[in-house]
Amino acid sequence: MDHVITSNNLTKKFGNFTAVDRISFSVLKGEIFGFLGANGAGKTTVMKMFCGLLSPTGGEGSVAGLDIFTQREKIKKRIGYMSQRFSLYEDLTVSENITFYAGIYGLKKNDIKEKREALTERLHLGDFQNNLISSLPLGWKQKLAFSVALIHSPDIVFLDEPTGGVDPVTRRQFWDLIYEAARQGVTIFVTTHYMDEAEYCDRISMMVDGRIEALGKPSELKTQFGVKTMNEVFLKLARK
Amino acid sequence: MKRFYAFVKKEFYHILRDYRTMLILFGMPVAQIMLFGFAITNEIKDAHIAILDPSKDHETSRLNEKILSSGYFILDKYLNSPGEIESVFEEGKVKIVVVYDEDFGRKLLKNKAASIQIIADATDPNTANTLTNYISAIFQDYVQSQNPLAISPVRVIPEVRFRYNPDLKGVFLFIPGLITIILMLVSAMMTSISLTREKELGTMEVLLASPMKPVQIIVAKVIPYIILAFIISIVILLLGYLVFKVPVKGNIALLISEFLLFIITALSLGILISTIAKTQQVALMMSLMGLMLPTIILSGFIFPVENMPKILQWISYLIPAKWFITIVKGIMLKGLGIEAIWKETLIILGFTLFFLIVSIKKFKIRLA
User: Which residue of chain B has the CA closest to A74?
Assistant: First the structure.
């Protein structure tokens, strides 16, 4: 199996503070990889290093076979990124947002039109194409933001706490979209602090204070720590 | 290029959809021109005057006629006693009172000297000053017409001529000033806010994670503002020319190139602010306090820099707008060419490079 993300002793320091401390792991193609940890554990920093938003201080890392130190610009064409704050423009309509993001990834005009139609159809947003994003409910915005992050058919999509602030039902629907993308071979790298979401991932890693303290399938981790839920795994690790 | 186009288009949507921005962009310049042009002037017309004339003779009535026919004054009333002076000022309408000597005409004939007292309401010192100058000039004029042959052996009669703006129209100064302020506002404030908005909303991260390079993002974001600022400055020029007859004596191509240079200066300031400010609020405050206020106060737009304390004069050298106003005034009103303003142009160019280099450094630090 292909490793689409690899990390070997990857480190990030901000001055004297070590935000990410020699972490090593790899992610397989088509895998849903959950990146868990408390706020400030360093999840977002790791993700930003893989997205080319931050340069690492030390170690090695690659995304889609490209080096995260030297080939950042190439990496950017192969990945999608959805930030905690959805990253849609509230004062633009649904179709303008799609067109814009497709545009900055350099898609051709005809492709953009095709993708836009397919996307709005799949999300049942056809009737709302010309509505401003600000008029849509939060759950819809998240689904749209996720689909927009996939608009240029990336190999890997990075989701930074994508389901903040929505109810469990909407969250479940959002995960259906994630599964669908994974089935089509897209690798999903997702950070979250909802432990119920951790159960949905193929594999997860737990970050505490800049280090990976546990890594494996949810079922393996539960056995390893001798508990019944991911929440308990998390609490055990966090209190260590 | 296609990416770029998609980006610029989106930026125009932002601007055109936000009616407040549109109002600032287009409403404000027009409103300010009309205000400065019509309402706020340093010239005084039809000031109310009261006259206390106890002698009521031939001389005083000729003088009164001269004052009232000058066009600057409107007679409010003739006073009958000095006691009334206080009360007319208290009523507030009368700005100036002229008090003649008793037996004015006779004293003038007999002693060749008589006195007139001019009392002005100095709650507004500038107006009071101007009015007393007008009245004194009228009296001087009268005295001279009375003595066509000089009594004293030496006489100096200054003949004043106002060049470049013969009618002393305030709007001549305001148009260059206004262009400066508006360019600063649109280019610096609007771009700093629009860039920090992307940061605040989290969209900046997504853009940076896309194949767009940071430089492309910034350039694409500022292009609409360059276009808008440029259009607005041309509108102001046209309004000034058509409504107030403010001329462009110099080379219009030179003037427009200087506009473009200053737009880029202001943009680089806006970008610099956006690399420091984390939220739109902060960007707005920084632009207002850090840019607009010094630009308005220290650029010579309203208050002459020459009259300021030395330390403020030195600070004013650091304000790009001060140099720009000098350039615009020079080209528009004096018809100067590049040979007269190359120094100022170089200074502005230097500022621009400095701001751009600092912003790029700051931006890189943020990415590292």
Answer: B211
